[in-house]
Amino acid sequence: MDRFRAMAAFVAVADEEGFAAAGRALRLSAPSVTRLVSELEETLGARLFHRTTRSVRLTDAGGRYLEDCRRILTDLEEADAHAGGRHGQPEGWVSVTGSALFGRLALTPILFRLMDRYPALSVSTLFVDRLVHMMDEGIDVAVRIADLPDSTLVASRVGSVRRVLCAAPSYLEEQGTLASVADLDQHQLIDFSQSGSGSQWGLVSDGKTVTHRPDTRLRVNTADAAIAAAVAGRGVTCVLSYQVAAEVAEGTLQIVLPEAEGAPLPVHVVHKEAGQTSARVRAVVDHLVEELRVSSWLEH
Q1: Is 193 part of a structural domain of the chain?
Q2: Same domain, yes or no, for 152 and 278?
Q3: Residue that terminates a domain, selected from 27, 49, 83
Q4: CA distance 242 to 118
Q5: CA separation, residue 25 to residues 15, 29, 33, 177, 218 (Å)
Q6: Is 158 in contact with 293 (CB distance < 8 Å)?
């Protein structure tokens, strides 16, 4: 058995969530991939996948083995690059995740410049408004807008964003301005909640942090929709500063109650610990940190 080939097949099945899809990715037949994984399981004396007719999912042993395989295959690729004299130029695929709107507004232009800088580098993005589990989903680099929990991941702070209240000038002219957090109860509110169950706005009132649950007739699950509703004059919404920077600059939205803003949210570039980081991932991390630390989308 070619151990490295079998490990690559195992990683592909985990990433593609199926033997047929892994075969297409590797340009092998599904039976060939199945045979490689079965031989690997026999050698290890452990099952790596739970298989049914409809799904393939990792066992506990498979989940632990997956990260080791990723690291070993990365080390092998790095060794090949060293031997071939290609180490100075990052090459291959790197996956990057971030929130949907931040990805579109801030990260995509940066990644375009990264690809121009390193022509042999390829980038795969996952821009979604949910927490992406980097290890489970095979993600190399993440940009997180939040306080980070303790973990084995390495984080580099690049700035912060504010959580702001905003509304269209036409709405404020018709409904009146806001003088305090208590005034929110007298206004139409647009709730942005990814879960659909309602959000909590962390605000400051009389020097104290308070949680305001918006009493709303309109709840949306994307920041884009909340911003569009606010621009249309449907009420006051609570979003992040970078998300409405263009609308505020154009005058289609106006920040209200700036004194009620809570503590800024930190922004970090996150990746796996140093021993598991390839040269291409390091190049992406360094480029993102360099550009985001001077980005106009963030507070510095």
Answers
A1: yes
A2: yes
A3: 83
A4: 28
A5: 10, 10, 11, 57, 43
A6: yes
Digitized pLDDT (tens) for each residue of the chain, 300 residues in all: 899 999 999 999 998 889 999 999 899 999 999 999 999 999 999 999 999 888 899 999 998 898 889 878 877 877 777 676 655 678 888 999 999 999 999 999 999 999 999 999 999 999 998 888 887 787 899 999 998 876 778 999 999 999 999 999 999 999 999 999 999 999 999 999 877 677 889 999 888 888 898 989 999 999 999 999 999 999 999 999 999 999 999 999 999 999 999 889 999 999 987 655 678 899 999 999 999 999 999 998
Q: What is the DSSP string of 28-92?
A: --HHHHHHHHHHHHHHHTS--EEE-SS-EEE-HHHHHHHHHHHHHHHHHHHHHHHHTT-TTS--E
Question: Which of 268, 273, 23 is CA-nearest to residue 145?
Answer: 268
Q: Three-state SS across 185-220?
A: HHCCEEEECCCCCCCCEEEEECCEEEEECCCCCEEE
To the nearest 10 degrees (0 to 180), the angle between helices 3-16 and 30-44 is: 110
User: Phi/psi at 259 (nearest 5 deg)?
Assistant: -70, -10
Q: Can you tell me the distance from the alpha carbon of 256 to that of 113, in angstroms, rounded to the nearest whole number?
A: 35
**Structural domain includes residue 133:** yes
> For residue 260, what are its two tokens?
């009620």
Q: Which helix (H) or strand (E) holds 121?
A: strand 121-127
Q: Is residue 207 part of a domain?
A: yes
